[in-house]
From TrEMBL:
It comes from Phrynocephalus forsythii. InterPro entries: Arsenite_MeTrfase-like, Methyltransf_11, SAM-dependent_MTases_sf. CDD domains: AdoMet_MTases (cd02440). GO terms for molecular function: S-adenosylmethionine-dependent methyltransferase activity. Residues 159-249 form the Methyltransferase type domain. It comes from the Eukaryota. This is Methyltransferase type 11 domain-containing protein.
Length: 300
């Protein structure tokens, strides 16, 4: 049934009702969650459409030449590593690229031979599954809350926040100008500017924003993009400014792991309390592994 026939059918149902019951039906239609399954499907479709738009604006590596340090760090990995952006390429998408020969799961051990070994993969974005898990299972109801994504890159966390939460203000802070322009293009095209703001800045210039945030999200922000002394400086700044009592901090990986190799003294037990998460909602192998990296803390 197309839209016009469905609309006609609904109006006929209303017209055929006992007049006294019509207000009750209209109230139910305005307030019920019975339609959620249809609207949430629609949200998935919009996010997939955003990912498709972004895929067309980027090379398959989803990295850009101005990311000098990130590209260098990728080449320095001990095992051959490929960047596959999990927001842009879900498993089906990745498989179809492999079939077309545009990507590979393996690398050649002896160039030209059939001896191959699996590549390591890194994603610099959350996948759609991770974004949904974040907003539907990790975070509480965000009605009226301010969310800050530190290092927003392609905007997966911002767009997810728009469609899967009721946060009133969603800020992305990204130091790379080209990625900010891409996020802005999406915000403009999908008319998301009532709740999303993209700031092209180093997070260390954004003290008031961090101080006011109810939720701060940090997905692998610094490790691949800054040298160790810069990472330490940024973490110190985060520690000094994410201080709103009761606010929430989401990190990937855990704070302990992020800070373990840096020369920075942050007494975690005086700053945050870890909140255990239940990963049982997703029992699948790969997804589960990625989800288990997500950690939630409450600021003391
Ligand atoms: C791994 S990506 C995270 C992407 C996004 N938050 C997500 O989860 O999909 C990290 C991003 O942080 C940015 N970044 C690194 N250090 C930063 C800083 N000091 N200030 C702002 N952005 C930074 C990088 O340019 C990179 O795009």
């Amino acid at each position: 049934m197309d839209f016009s026939s469905a609309r006609h059918a609904i109006l006929n149902v209303v017209k055929g009702m006992r007049a006294g019951d019509v207000p009750q039906l209209l109230h139910w239609m305005k307030t019920t969650s019975d339609f959620d399954e249809f609207t949430s499907n629609n949200k998935d479709i919009i996010l997939r459409s955003i990912a498709e738009d972004l895929r067309h604006s980027l090379p398959t590596t989803a990295m850009i030449s101005s990311e000098h340090l990130a590209l260098q760090k990728l080449h320095e990995q001990t095992k051959p590593t490929l960047h596959v952006d999990a927001f842009l390429y879900d498993d089906d998408c990745f498989d179809s690229l492999c079939e077309k020969g545009e990507m590979s799961r393996n690398y050649c051990l002896t160039c030209g031979s059939h001896r191959t070994a699996p590549l390591e993969f890194i994603s610099h974005s959350f996948s759609l599954t991770e974004v949904k898990f974040l907003y539907e299972h990790v975070l509480p109801d965000l009605t009226g809350k301010v969310v800050v994504d530190v290092g927003s890159r392609l905007g997966a966390v911002l767009f997810g926040g728009y469609f899967y939460s009721s946060a009133s203000e969603i800020y992305g802070v990204e130091m790379n100008t080209e990625f900010c322009q891409l996020q802005e293009t999406v915000v403009e095209k999908y008319q998301l500017f009532d709740r999303i703001k993209v700031l092209n800045a180093d997070i260390c210039t954004q003290a008031p924003l961090l101080k006011n945030a109810d939720v701060v999200i940090m997905n692998n922000v610094f490790e691949y993009f800054l040298d160790r002394s810069e990472q330490a400086r940024c973490w110190k700044f985060i520690n000094e400014n994410v201080r709103k009592k009761g606010s929430l901090l989401v990190t990937v990986p855990s704070l302990e792991k992020s800070l373990s190799e840096l020369q920075v003294d942050i007494p975690l037990n005086q700053w945050v309390e870890a909140i255990p998460l239940h990963y049982d909602v997703f029992l699948e192998g790969n997804d589960r592994e990625a989800l288990e990296e997500i950690c939630l803390y409450r600021i003391l």
